[in-house]
Design a protein that fits this description.
This protein is an alpha+beta fold and 184 residues long. 19% of the residues lie in helices and 24% in strands.
């Protein structure tokens, strides 16, 4: 019986060493002394970055200010977006009835999700839809609307999803309704 041999090459070094000069990913390998942006070798094996001043430096000079309740509202909207998206995908997969979502979906979206549950959805044969990421962001200065976007998987394929949540203000707590949904 022949044996197959496997040859593994080291991955190219693409990130600087961790702070303190010791890189835990490459223990047992010897690296060259790190240099700064000016080419000078730094003491104790650590690199010192010069301040980035370019427009695409990855650092923002602007300070962000958020309203006191915006963080709480954003967290609530993200939780509702995640839950609502999972429920909608369950309806599309045929694991739940569309009428059970009338409390959280606008009537037009209930019809859309119900129609998708009987239509040929791309990738349905790959298995059940599983939500992977969900993000929300406010629409303009109005905190009553947020955009949600994220990804879900079917088998080994990744699909995108987007939608809009609108807050219905009541005396007790805001209730969110999914008013638009887009699947790809």
């Amino acid at each position: 019986m022949p044996t197959d041999s496997v040859h593994v090459r080291r991955l190219p070094r693409s990130e600087p060493p961790a702070v303190g000069g010791h890189d835990h990913r490459c223990a047992g390998t010897r690296a060259t002394a790190p240099t700064g942006g000016d080419g000078a070798v730094r003491r104790s094996g650590s690199t010192v970055s010069a301040p980035r001043t370019g427009p695409h430096s990855g650092r923002s000079n602007a300070t962000r200010t958020t309203a006191p309740g915006a963080t709480r509202t954003g967290a609530a909207a993200r939780h509702v977006a995640d839950r609502t998206l999972r429920l909608a995908l369950e309806v599309i997969d045929g694991r739940r009835q569309a009428t059970s979502l009338r409390a959280v979906l606008a009537p037009s979206v209930v019809g859309l999700v119900g129609a998708l549950s009987t239509a040929a959805v791309p990738g349905r044969s790959l298995g059940a839809a599983v939500v992977r990421t969900v993000h929300v962001r406010p629409v303009g200065d109005d905190t009553d609307d947020v955009e949600m976007f994220g990804t879900y998987t079917r088998g080994n394929r990744v699909f995108a999803v987007a939608g809009r949540l609108t807050a219905r203000r009541s005396a007790s707590t805001p209730a969110w309704t999914l008013t638009a949904l887009r699947l790809s």
